[in-house]
Write a structure and sequence with these properties.
The structure is a single chain. With about 90 residues, the protein is mostly beta strands. It has one domain. The chain is built from one helix and seven strands. The longest helix has 4 residues.
């Protein structure tokens, strides 16, 4: 079941260390519910490297855990949460 929302923009989120801008900007688009309750979702994830202006496209896998809905992607051979990319300086 497709549930499309406007493109989410995480470009303005700053790192917790010294309030510096992060190395990557992340945008999310086109969420799909894989179960009827919406506990398991998939979405498109666009990751922009701010130094090289290169954009990477990944498929995100989201799981509902209480009030938190983390999204994991395959990044350089590892399964990581997208929030960890925001804090890289």
């Amino acid at each position: 079941m497709k549930h499309s929302i406007p493109l989410l923009d995480y470009e303005r989120i700053k790192s917790t260390e010294h309030d510096k801008e992060g190395h990557y900007a992340i945008k999310l688009d086109n969420f799909y519910h894989l179960d009827q309750a919406g506990n398991h979702t998939t979405c498109r994830v666009y990751i922009k490297d701010k130094l090289t202006n290169k954009v990477y496209k990944r498929t995100g896998d989201g799981r509902q855990i209480g009030n938190f809905h983390p999204i994991w992607i395959n990044w350089k051979g590892n399964k990581i949460q997208i929030e960890s990319l925001l804090w890289e300086v």
